[in-house]
Amino acid sequence: MSTTRRRLLGAIATFALVSAGVVHAQDQEQAEEAKRVLIYGDSNTWGYIPVESGPTERYPADIRWPGVMQAELGDDFEIIEEGLSARTTDVADPSLPHISGAGLDGSEALSPIIASHLPLDLVVIMLGTNDVKVQFDRSPFRIGLGMGALVDIVQQTGSGVGTDYHTPEILVLAPPPLGDLFPEGRAERFAGGVEKTQALPQYYEAIAAAAGAEFLDVGTLAETDGIDGVHFSAEAHGNIGRGVAEKVKSILD
Prior knowledge:
Radius of gyration: 22 Å
Oligomer: single chain
Number of domains: 2
Keywords: Signal
Number of strands: 5
Strand content: 5-15%
Strand order of the largest sheet: 2-1-3-4-5
CATH superfamily of the largest domain: SGNH hydrolase
Structural class: alpha/beta
Organism: Palleronia aestuarii
Low-confidence stretches: 11-19, 22-31
CATH architecture of the largest domain: 3-Layer(aba) Sandwich
InterPro entries: SGNH_hydro (IPR013830), SGNH_hydro_sf (IPR036514)
GO molecular function: hydrolase activity, acting on ester bonds
Order of helices and strands: HEHHEHEHEHHEH
Protein name: Lysophospholipase L1-like esterase
Distance between the termini: 56 Å
Shape: globular
CATH topology of the largest domain: Rossmann fold
């Protein structure tokens, strides 16, 4: 091989390595700059497919509202899903003892979940539907205080464990009111819940304003239209994901 050819191949190889390094650095910088958003919710965040009775399955990631939200926001955002069926704001549910540890009490699990996902730019909370169950005997005002406790936990978690990250912004979501409750079990379990969920937005909005958090009434985006009256159709998930994405952009952009 001639000296000229060796030099040419060497130059090409060097250019390729430098270009790859630049692309890698750009990708890494983009990843580091992505806004990190934690979604904290219950079965409607988890993606529970509504059924008349019995067990169910989960909507695929691109159908669930956090997944729709991710698609709307693009690569500049990273959406972290933390949904748990039957989760409440801050009350324990003894009817499901097999969910151990923090159980279904949202206030018990929130702080370590936040710390495990830092750094975060925004924490979005949509809870309260399960709080209206008859067994808890909670008023809309008391459920609003439960949401307030969650907002306070986010603000007090601070920089996590051994780190120095900023405290994330908070977006409080009032869930849509319950729909027509399917009579098999849920009508009794959620008796009076329709009226309670209809009242939640005013309390949540006041709590968010008092705490310096953002607020959105998800009932303005979609209805609780699943056959069971508690969960969302795929269409509702899409409407919620797109609507919340717009709100998130207004907060973080």
